[in-house]
Each structure stands twice: as structure tokens, then as C-alpha cells.
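Project standup — Tuesday

K.O.: blocked on the structure for the chain from last sprint. Re-posting the sequence here as requested.
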Amino acid sequence: MSMHSRPEIKDRLAIIAGSGLLPLHVAEAARTHGENPFIIALANESDRDWSSFDNTTLGIGNFKAISGVFRDIGIGRVVMSGAVRRRPDWRDIKPTMKSLVKIPSVLRTLLSGGDDAVLKMAIELIETNGARVIGVQDIVPELLAEIGTLGARTPGAEDQADIEAAEAAAIALGHLDVGQGAVAVGGRVVALEGPEGTDAMLERVARLKADGRISSRRRGVLVKLCKPQQDLRADLPSVGPSTIKGAQAAGLAGIAIEAGRALVLDREEMIALANEAGLFITGVDRALLRGGK
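H.V.: unblocked you, prediction finished:
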């Protein structure tokens, strides 16, 4: 554990870091904004090197230790970033006195709640212990996708039909609190994102095309949207260079993401890869799609 002396102010930023590149992007971007983020890397989840930041590693259910870090380091704001692949077992839960009364509902949510329900529960527990949770977009708004084309290519009429079909599926999937992405090919939904994540879903589409289960004559589109009920302080949909590589391998024409509510990682590299592969990236306003429902 690497900690510096207690800061004079009591509003230092902490990043609770799960797996993937997103937490590192957020930490580096926050630093360029003048922040000195303290990293709480989740044990068995975080897979980045945090040696250039003040950091500690704690279990995802160890609210007692996390609360202690908030107090000792002077944490006032918290960003939750990155994927969490496993839910804590009830034996991993170490509550504070303040959160003890919530433990029965915590256990029920862990057993039967969807991902969004679990995230909302985590936000409530963090705020019970003295810090406020903010969104990535509150620290690094430049990571948000904007409306319109990001690269050199724009979607055509057939692509627009695929965007509409996949958008409707992504919204329905979101209502079920399952995932954020869907793929449509030739106006037909062919894949829905589950716990495996976007990259694995795209690998599945590539296999289905290779096996002839999906037409290879038509390309298709990936759409990623926030869940309708989603708390925007956690788990915004994100795309990056790996998404472009997966879409290219799956033979897709492009990617549509929700403007203002999706994160674009390694923007320059992602756009360069999309241009080279002949794929489009477009930011869509869900309020203009199917009446925003």
C-alpha cells in the first residue's frame, strides 16, 4: 500500500478501480485536470499497474477498510470505474457500523439483483460512509461521445436500419438490467450483450458469421446505450480500439454509441483504426430514436 501524508483538504478524489483500461484512462485524465486521485484497486479485479499513483488494494466487499481510507486520506469524492467480474461472497462483506443495518438488503441484492441494482447498492453504501459518488463525466467530460460521426465514414441507409433494430434491442435488454449492447445485421438482431461483455459478444458474432449462421453478405452494426434506469455515476457504456478490432473481425459496418452517455477511450487511435478498417463510429441521441423510449 502506497499512501502519502494526509491532504489539507477533505475533498480528494478516489477512484475505485475494477478491471480493464478504463480506470487508468480516468485516473490519467483526472491528473491532467489537476486532480491527485487516490486509487482503491479492487482485489482480484484491477489488472493495471498503479505504482505511479497513491494507491491501495482492497476487497470489493470490505466497506470497513474502504471507509477507513476515506477518513485517513481525506476522500470526499469517489468515481467508480472499470468492470467487476465477480460479486463478493457474503463472507467477504465487512460492513461499517453505519452500514450494518443495510446488510440484509445488500445480501438480497447480491443474490438476485441485476448489475445496475448492485451498482446502486454500492453507491448507497459508499455515500453512507461519508463520501459522495460522482460520474466519470464530472471529472473528464472530454471522454463522452458527441452527436454525429467521429471518423471519416458515415452510416448509410442499411446501416441506419440496423442501428434502429439494435437500438430497440439494447433498450429492451437494458430494461431487464442485463447488458448495454446489441448487434443487428440486415435489420435483424443477432446478438445481445450479457455478462461476457462487448468484446466477447463480437467474437460470438464473428463465429456465427464464419459458421454461416449469420449472413456474411450483410455487414451489421453494434449499438451501445445506457440502460434506461441506469445511474449515470457508474458503468457508462464505453468503446475503444478493442471494440473497433472486434467489430472488424465480426465483419460489421460500424458502431453507434449514445452521445453524452457513452465513453470513448483512446479516441485518436480508435478513429484511426476505424478509418483504416472502413468502419463508421457515430454518436446517436436516443431522444431522437423511437421517441426516446
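K.O.: great, moving the ticket to review. The mean pLDDT is 85. DSSP finds nine helices and 13 strands in the chain.
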